# Entry
Amino acid sequence: MAAPARLKSTLALVTGGGSGIGRAVCQRLAQEGASVAVVDLSIDSANDTLRRLARDAPGQDHVALAADVSRSESVRALMEQIQSRFLAPPRVAVNSAGITRDEFLLRLSEEAFDSVLNVNLKGTFLITQAVAQSIVTSGQDGGSIINMGSIVGKVGNLGQGNYAASKAGVEGLTKTAAKELAKFGICCNTILPGFIATPMTEKVPQKVLDKFAGMIPLGRLGRPEGNSPVRKGVYSL
Ligand code: NAD
# Structure
């Protein structure tokens, strides 16, 4: 049965919408009736997602836009493009853009630390601030900002000091945003996924993935489009 169009006439912005979790989020938001601004550093990837939305949710006004979330000029230009096209602020923003640059602490370079913090944490800050400002200046309160943390931000992970720090930072930032923006009707939440099979995790050595899969009750990594608790011989519905 088709999902009810709970987000009809809602504009949603998704960073990192060209791949993995961000792409699946775009597809789900479109399925719920939203118009989606698919934002990615790679315009080709964003356009690829856009084609899927046009196929699966035709008749809705989606757009693909290139932006580097770690640069304030790029985020400003992005918000101007959205305002001039939709004449309204996004009411939903999902910060899914993220990168990894794994290295053990003893060898982790300053450049690899900064680049991960810049995309994952500063990028989330810039988009959160820009979207909140656009909602507040529109004079019409209300919205939802969803930031992608990670279980790694809670528990750490070998070779991911930069990534863990960025994701722990996303949690603190989002909790503060939730407190400050509640008076404008803007809800802010962090999602902490475990290991999900995407291009990001394709870079992880298979033996490490197997180790993590062994710790997951389903016996496999999660899927961006969601988990079905079906594994022959273990679960039955
Ligand atoms: P992915 O690599 O498949 O997608 C990330 C997307 O972000 C890519 O399309 C990339 O082009 C885009 N991006 C990178 N830098 C950008 C920038 N500066 N500006 C704009 N876009 C940029 O990754 P994914 O697995 O889908 O991860 C999505 C989010 O979920 C990330 O924040 C990641 O840290 C988080 N996460 C992933 C996992 C996992 O296991 N896959 C687990 C926990 C959290």
Observations:
- The chain has two domains: 11-193, 199-237.
- The radius of gyration is 18 Å.
- The domain at 11-193 is CATH 3.40.50.720 (Rossmann fold).
